Amino acid sequence: MLTVSNLSKTIDGQAVLRGVDFKLEQGRVVGVVGRNGAGKTTLFKTMAGILIPDAGTVEYEGQSIHATPSKKLNIVFIPDSPEALFSYTAMESALFFSHIYPTFDKGFFSNTLHKLELPLDRKIRQFSKGMRMLFSTVLGLATKAPFVLLDEPTNGIDAIAKKQVMTLLMEAAEEGTTLVISSHLLNELERVADTILVMKAGGIETHDMDETANGAVRKFQVVFRDEAPASWLNSPSVRVLDKIGRVYTVLVDTKAPIGALEEMGKFDPLLMEHLPMKLEDLFVWKLGGSNYVG
């Protein structure tokens, strides 16, 4: 169990993390989403013990990783680019990591790089972006740390490399590794994640993927019989996703005190069809900009 409690971090006078709380059970795949600059990388670096929090704790099995440095070995952070290892070859990087992580699996590392046709004797700076991400993923998984934090692991790489990275990650998850993945590729996260952490204004909300599909916020396609009710469309319990002619695609908070769903029915629309919710819809609901203003 990895427990983050009341975690706060200020960088250059800006509060990046504000009292963040959540728990991660082993063997889960967790997606972390948020707008650019939301603090996802800062969160990962603090969780891995690279950054020291201003307040709060990160505990592995009840012990603080910052107060007990040996506990950091249970958490590995894989950045979006392995710049710190650019002057090393892949094999030299593995030897370096094996001195840090006692559980480092050299056989897994060498065999997997061989299968992926990645050279062990080439400097990392000579790798393409896709090769670097594959190398970083294999290096992190080879530590056999129970918690692996990945910052944008498939960003900017080709379709083949992306499939290879995701295959490696899903194989690790099947073996019980907890993966915490930040990504703007929401369709990708939706396919693999059990839980989603939504970052906004330095805080975090936790959403189970089943709750995303069957929660209070629902998605509808609606065609109004008369002129579209602007006041309803602009209400805080409604968000317009799309409008094509008279056809609106909207998100509605069905638990809102004002009864937005019931109110929609009172307009006697020509069409009111319930659509499946996607992770992208949750992202827009939680983090989207201004609503319909037409």
UniProtKB/TrEMBL annotation:
Reply yes or no: does the keyword ATP-binding apply.
yes
Q: Where are the transmembrane segments?
A: none
One matching Pfam family: ABC_tran
Span of domain ABC transporter: 2-226
The record, for SUPFAM superfamilies, names: P-loop containing nucleoside triphosphate hydrolases (SSF52540)
Provide the GO MF annotations for this entry: ATP binding; ATP hydrolysis activity
> Which InterPro entries does the entry mention?
AAA+_ATPase, ABC_transporter-like_ATP-bd, ABC_Transporter_VariousFunc, P-loop_NTPase
Q: Which UniProt keywords apply?
A: ATP-binding, Nucleotide-binding, Transport
The protein in question is named ABC transporter ATP-binding protein
What is the species of this protein? Answer: Cohnella luojiensis
